[in-house]
């Protein structure tokens, strides 16, 4: 064997060994996290999540990716929450009232008339009380990635004008099927009627319900103004929603990945608030242009009823909880 042929054969064997070793060693794939939400494409949550995905990809050099799944593509809210708790790599936006079974006190954050504005409401997330609730959330199998995303101010669109709680006596208002929303509308003086949002338009048209409550972009987007023409600015909820994942999955992420998600998530929350406020102003004008009568409401009588009735509706809450959280927010 000549020396050149020996060198060539040795090099070939070495290259073959390296190739075989590479084939046997799996490459480290990027960690992909699905982000699930019920909002439709183009709504503020969808726009904000997709911008968040770009920031996560940028900050992680592509090692961490977010994949958006709008319009409940991965299932309903309860189903997606269960997937997260059992370790699926996903994050979902939910309501604090959905913790009523596992961490009951957290549901108070969706109670009506806790805050007059979002700046006040957001103070609760820096409190010792909320830190204690986060620990309970983790013990129940979840992790709150972003606690403070502004979702919108909920107003009341109805057949007749509403100025006082007495005006709501016998009035059927559609609510989502949630104990907190049912209790809130009942406390305001109306008859809560749970149903899916998709059923609201025909129900209004047929007289099965007399009104619907939601943030203004939802009220406009659902075209409910074609049937009922009175917008009552009750501002009964300043809704702030968390993005949540499973504690088991969160613990699988490296500290660097956790930090990236947390820091870019706070950027996303700020972006979402801007989008929500801009869309709210736009929707108010669109409703006016569509012939809706807008009525300012003295909310004091509604607030007094909520303070009295809501704690009674949730005996599983800690004593004095509603007032305690209200003091943190308004103090």
Automatic annotation (TrEMBL):
It comes from Salinicola rhizosphaerae. Belongs to the bacterial solute-binding protein 7 family. Keywords: Signal, Transport. Transmembrane segments: none annotated. InterPro entries: DctP_fam, TRAP_DctP, TRAP_DctP_sf. Gene3D superfamilies: Bacterial extracellular solute-binding protein, family 7. This is C4-dicarboxylate ABC transporter. NCBIfam families: dctP, TRAP_S1. Residues 1-29 form the signal peptide.
